[in-house]
TrEMBL record, chains A, B:
Free-text function comment from the UniProt entry: Hydrolyzes UDP-glucose to glucose 1-phosphate and UMP and ADP-ribose to ribose 5-phosphate and AMP. The physiological substrate is probably UDP-glucose. Poor activity on other substrates such as ADP-glucose, CDP-glucose, GDP-glucose and GDP-mannose.
Main location: cytoplasm
UniProt subcellular location: Cytoplasm
Protein name: Uridine diphosphate glucose pyrophosphatase NUDT14
Species lineage: Eukaryota, Metazoa, Chordata, Craniata, Vertebrata
Compositional bias (Basic and acidic residues): 81-90
């Protein structure tokens, strides 16, 4: 799920200025919580997001001495378990105070994609994204719908349907990584089950609400089947 | 949290056309899960969202015989507990097949607001929104941070911090409803605790992921204190 997300702005004034009522038309989307039953890991994607980077850049201009470091006064609720270099919001040596490091634009997200192929079902689109982004070949029948909701109600008003997919190492048929020719720059990341809730609520790890929601959904719905740490 | 959400588009070409890399700059935001301990209800806001309405309108053009009725083949996982007239995605008698009813643009959301006052803390902004939108006067010290995350990673890249606030009928000092002069059209809605999880996973009730996530967070974190139905 990358840049083609935005199709066009409507309600633009003829002179090119924007009204305060602008909103964007987009496609609906699917997202998938992937759980590898062989390694007992969740499979996420890690992406550089230009919009997130710009947001951090704006923040760094407001706080020139502490670029992208608004969290310092608020300790994370649990001890971080991910490598330090994976954390955004840190100043790398050698970068200017007005230029956050590229890592400041990175977020951890669920595998996701746009519903832009009218002949495919939501499940078929989800299946394609799991294969393209994460390299797992999962049958459509193995996709379980978690729920659907409105995303970006102030901007796009589109609908996202979230699925859960169990995969195994046997389904791992490729490297994933998305489609570089479409501008996707995706890294596949594994989050071990026993670290999942700590990961979810560690605010120093930049992520979407979808990651947190789906992890806590798994905890509530799959805990009889898989043991998950509850140290939050 | 309404229309001023969108400030301006950047990366616009000088001739007014849009690049595929467009994104929007916005303020960070706060959202608040409000629980009334007197009536054992969650307090949500119900808003007409132009972007959601336009999304449904576009959908209705794709399916002229079944406007905004994409859910028909997918029965909701639990029996709906809200009045029928509260549901979007229905065709009202007398409306054209190309004009969904206004209810199609309505969503249930957490009380929320923009972080657009540099002198106020996140908690103080959250407190103001609870008062303005929902009419409850809650002390800043009663606000508990749930977590924070990236919202709209493809478009805005801004950060949202989610709080939990317990209120009682004694804190109810006004009607709420937001600021009509700023275009806000907000109705305060109560969701009883024992219906919360059914509400959260009833896909025929249009809502944001924040509602679902915060309800399930409450279920995971507050269930020793308050009993919540788990019929999902």
């Amino acid at each position: 799920l990358f840049i083609p997300f935005i199709k066009f702005c409507i309600n633009e004034r003829s002179n090119g200025t924007k009204k305060s009522w602008d909103f964007m038309q987009t496609h609906d989307s699917v997202s998938v919580l992937i759980f590898n039953t062989t390694s007992h890991c969740f499979i996420l994607v890690k992406q550089f997001r230009p919009a997130v980077y710009m947001s951090e850049w704006e923040r760094s201009k407001l706080k020139p001495l502490q670029p992208a470091e608004e969290e310092s006064a608020e300790p994370a609720p649990a001890e971080p378990k991910v490598p330090e270099e994976d954390k955004a919001g840190e100043t790398s040596e050698g970068t200017s105070s007005h230029q956050p490091p590229a890592s400041a634009g990175v977020t951890y997200e669920l595998c996701a994609g746009l519903v832009d192929k009218p002949n495919l079902s939501l499940e078929e689109i989800a299946r394609q994204e799991v294969l393209e982004e994460c390299g797992y070949d999962v049958s459509v029948t193995k996709l379980r719908k978690i729920t659907s909701f409105r995303s970006g109600v102030g901007v796009t008003g589109s609908k996202q349907t979230m699925f859960y997919a169990e995969v195994s190492d046997e389904n791992h048929v490729g490297e994933g990584g998305g489609k570089p020719q479409e501008g996707e720059l995706i890294e596949v990341v594994k989050v071990p089950l026993h670290e999942a809730m700590t990961f979810a609520f560690d605010e120093s790890i930049p992520k979407t609400m979808g990651v947190i929601f789906s992890f806590i959904w798994f905890h509530s719905n799959m805990s009889p089947k898989y043991k998950i740490s509850t140290n939050v």
